[in-house]
Specification:
Number of strands: 5
Bound molecules: zinc ion
Number of helices: 15
CATH architecture of the largest domain: 3-Layer(aba) Sandwich
Helix content: 40-55%
Radius of gyration: 23 Å
CATH class of the largest domain: Alpha Beta
Largest sheet: 5 strands, parallel
Order of helices and strands: HEHHEHEHEHEHHHHHHHHH
């Protein structure tokens, strides 16, 4: 649990972290940045656990008292800074949970580590409060900030952090993980790995979602309706999928890969490159009934929607514009 050797991908970053541990050149502040589900929290936790492990190696031993208390989620010297108000992680949160606390010596272990998991929620004022500590932390203090995007942070904060950017990992690695650890078949593993686009968290969400098949069927049905120009039904599907953000995100991903598969069938028709292999016949039918032009219009609209989705909260409307 929470070891580097359990993490899929991110070899370069792990190598960098391990060498800083081995050479005793650990920084006082880190920022792990990257999209949701990419593995930032896993890395940060493995890092913190390894730093505190009493064996002092570059992997946690999993049996010392530090490793055990970490695994039971009550390590006295690894703390998580969280928001106490709905407005985000504010000045008071940083002052009380970090700035004041860090001055108290570690309870038992070598370091005192603070992990801010929702770094994106740290307000600019709170970043200023954080700056004081990041500038002059005690020798045992380490602060790890986890964020989707470092550009939201004050340059003064960033300049004090070692920034580690997590990139999507190779789909082949996710596929192997799904086959070995989740015991999926080749076909299913290939599909989920392709859908994840290098994001293992996403692959796991797809895998565990009981709605996955339902949403995929909705998307297939939506394409049927587009072909048949059944506007009423299209509206109904847009309403159904647009209800929840998570559903809509998944629906958009499924739609993109579905259309991409149709294109593959029309152009080269090689099953090897198809993501939704288990629905080959339906893809073939859609490929015969949809023109290149129609597909590329849908694809470019989808791209626009995915780009704007963060600012555009009205999923239902977005989906309606997509379908019409
Ligand atoms: Zn240990």
């Amino acid at each position: 649990m929470n070891s580097f050797n359990e993490i899929v991908g991110h070899e370069e970053i792990i190598k960098h972290i391990k060498s800083s541990i081995k050479t005793d050149k650990v920084s006082h502040a880190y920022m792990f940045e990257g999209e949701e589900g990419i593995g930032k929290k896993c890395l940060a936790n493995a890092f913190a656990k390894t730093l505190q492990c009493e064996e002092g190696k570059d992997e946690p031993c999993n049996s010392c008292s530090s490793c055990k208390s970490f695994d039971s989620q009550n390590h006295p010297d690894i703390k998580y800074v969280v928001a106490t108000k709905k407005t985000g992680i504010g000045v008071d949160d940083i002052r009380e949970q970090l700035n004041m606390d860090i001055n108290i010596k570690p309870y038992r272990y070598r370091y005192k580590i603070y992990i801010i998991e929702e770094g994106d929620l740290v307000t600019p004022q709170a970043q200023n409060a954080l700056l004081k500590t990041i500038e002059e932390p005690p020798g045992y203090g380490i602060i790890i900030i986890i964020a989707h995007n470092s550009s939201r942070f004050l340059p003064t904060v960033l300049s004090r952090c070692a920034i580690l950017s997590l990139k999507p990992i190779e789909e082949e690695k996710i596929k192997s993980y799904l086959i070995e650890e989740e015991k999926l078949s080749q076909v299913k593993a290939h599909m989920y790995a392709s859908l994840s686009r290098g994001n293992i968290g996403k692959a796991k969400i797809f895998l565990s979602s009981i709605e996955f098949e339902e949403i995929r069927n909705d998307i297939i049905y939506a394409i049927d309706c587009i072909i048949e120009e059944n506007d009423l039904e299209i509206l109904e599907i847009a309403r159904k999928i647009g209800e929840f953000k998570e559903k809509s995100d998944m629906a958009l991903d499924l739609m993109v890969t579905w259309l991409r598969d149709i294109m593959v069938i029309k152009e080269i028709n090689d099953e090897k490159y198809i993501i939704h292999k288990d629905k080959y016949k339906t893809l073939l039918k859609h490929g015969q009934l949809l023109s290149y032009n129609r597909i590329s219009v849908l694809m470019s609209r989808l791209e626009d929607i995915q780009k704007n989705i963060k600012v555009n909260v009205n999923y239902q409307l977005s989906l309606e514009t997509l379908f019409f």
